[in-house]
Model the fold of this input.
Amino acid sequence: MTESGSCRPGFLRVLDRIVPDELVEVEAAGFADLGTHLSMTERRSMAAEREAVDRYLAAYLAEHVGARFHGTISGVTRFGLFVTLDETGANGLIPIRNLGPEFFRLDEAARQLTGDRSGTTFRLGQGIRVELAEADQITGSLRFDLAEEIEQQRRKKERGRRR
Done:
């Protein structure tokens, strides 16, 4: 019970004085639908904001294709790793085929990919160095390569030229 002797919160007592009971009951029936509509509208607006930010980041990073960045693995899937760049917060994908020449197994429970031959493991939350391979300004998507793998490929090419 409140100070005024009423069990109803203050805003409802004010509403009682302003709006007749019949109108409140009629309007109350639509509150659930209104709440659903507002939630859906908010989700749509958040998705639009994320898409706009992704496109702006991709446009900015398009000028930096080939650059290397520090990031954090933010998702582990059967088709690759999602990485969030530490510097910009941009998100992108390292396709599983770009992780190396071996087969990688997904352990969903541990949220990690493990290489069959080398035992190399990529875990959710692990820091990683990536090279920006592609930035699509239209879709806002980024594709990364594993910086270590790129470096190994370059060394192999250099060794081949020396022979």
Remarks:
- The helical segments are 10-18, 21-29, 31-61, 147-162.
- Residues 1-163 form a domain with the OB fold (Dihydrolipoamide Acetyltransferase, E2P) fold (CATH 2.40.50.140).
- The radius of gyration is 26 Å.
- The chain has one domain: 1-163.
